[in-house]
Amino acid sequence: MIEGMGADLRRLLRAGPGGVELAAVDPRSRPGLTAEQGKQWARERRSELGRELARQQEMLFASAKTAAPGSAAARRRVLLVLQGMDCSGKGGTVRRVVGAMNPIGLRVTAFGPPTEQERERHFLWRVARALPSAGQVGVFDRSHYEDVLIARVRQLVPESVWRGRYDEINQWESELVAGGVTIVKVMLHLSYREQTERLAARLANPAKHWKLDPSDLDERTRWGDYQEAYAELLARCSTDAAPWYVVPADRKWYRDWAVTELLLATCRDLGLRYPPATVDVAEFQRRLAATAQWGTGPGKG
Amino acid sequence: MIEGMGADLRRLLRAGPGGVELAAVDPRSRPGLTAEQGKQWARERRSELGRELARQQEMLFASAKTAAPGSAAARRRVLLVLQGMDCSGKGGTVRRVVGAMNPIGLRVTAFGPPTEQERERHFLWRVARALPSAGQVGVFDRSHYEDVLIARVRQLVPESVWRGRYDEINQWESELVAGGVTIVKVMLHLSYREQTERLAARLANPAKHWKLDPSDLDERTRWGDYQEAYAELLARCSTDAAPWYVVPADRKWYRDWAVTELLLATCRDLGLRYPPATVDVAEFQRRLAATAQWGTGPGKG
């Protein structure tokens, strides 16, 4: 079994109950790593940790599948919430960190601007529908937190409405946790300068032109407002039940390594095991041996 | 761009309109490969092809996202249907072949025995609900074909019912195809002997004991009946609109390589491209340059 440093990293990156002074967190910093632990080290490490993450995911899946109906293990699931400004690497994190797991046990949902149908419902309706099933790892690429981010910055709803959402979110998340969902929330903390460079790189690559959206530039002009909105949700919604982590995201290799460690540490806390057989192994063995010789039917190798 | 040999392989593995004599297909054979192209070659090749598959998937996603509403491209999606006896490697194929793609563009569903709710509905109800969205690649690990496999072998419904399902399936699949779904159906063709060995390997590995199911052994005793049931569905449901391929599956590396080639060839037939920008690139560039210097707000790197 590969040991991660996830527990320490959680302490280093956790947004405390009082929140985080975002301006004091350098998006190019690399908390938890020594000077020698650079890009190559982190990539190799993430690759190892990814295999362990896949193992944890399999144990989660197996446990839920074999657990007694109604038991805690039968309801257990994990939810990773990713938030961050445009170009902060939510998509890349899904591809490289989440991509290390088995697709069969994943439920990944990207949330764009709400559809008309979604706008008619409570803001938690669409995310509730996208929750992972028991035994699955769910991933939200953007989430209900947009409803206290763009909704606040762009005044899509009155202030009294978005102000009330922090408590609504905390209440909902604590119900999920009580229902067996383990929640990890990650803010990918990008610098304005790095966003500029990534947008310029998109412009330079025709294969990425489809990603260009004029709203990217509009939201950029509200950078300070967004940082404020992030600071408040980190202060209000980083609960013990569902903590927020701030991951410096200017370096992609750091971001991928750190999110892998956070997710892995979270899974490890569940104390997962491969469940024992639900059948009598000796009897299964005997029956298998008894049928091993069948050898004349159609389609035999 | 990496050239695959998918087109040739499709010809080699395709179940013709008249079906396939399964007994004549050696599950250890490796159609399409020379004697020199063995395990190592196939693994390296699959890894290269996997990157190309991910690129195709991204173009599919991008095309659907940027296409004019109601256009053909806006509805386009791909569905991979995997069938095969227990231990034939449906799960391994999902992990290694499908796992090469980006989880955000995937919808993978494993179908077990129908729930009570599902049994009350038409047999196509649950699969219809699991179809990929536009721009996604969907994967069925088992499928509606169980309704002419176990349902037939175990007489879960009267013969007149399952006999009618071949036409129902063809009709439904042709409607899907007309609606923009490209369907690839793969039967993983395993030998009885290899299944014996894989079940024995499961028994020997406590981390795999949770997978043991007494029904695995029960179904084994009906091996010949299942081969017959497969032969009939291959004969009845391998249409030009939604062809079946029979992939020899005793060698895992062959199976993974072959399914990757089949899926990739299918994607390539769609003639996907990265769509052009939906914005004025020069104008975007100008606005980006104009905002590049903003540099004193909070949270800046």
Automatic annotation (TrEMBL), chains A, B:
Pfam families for the chain: PPK2
One GO BP annotation of this record: polyphosphate metabolic process
Gene Ontology molecular function terms on file: phosphotransferase activity, phosphate group as acceptor
InterPro entries (alphabetical): P-loop_NTPase, PPK2-rel_1, PPK2-related
Polyphosphate kinase-2-related domain location: 72-266
PANTHER family, per database record: POLYPHOSPHATE:AMP PHOSPHOTRANSFERASE, POLYPHOSPHATE:AMP PHOSPHOTRANSFERASE-RELATED
Protein name in UniProt: Polyphosphate kinase-2-related domain-containing protein
The organism of origin for this protein: Natronosporangium hydrolyticum
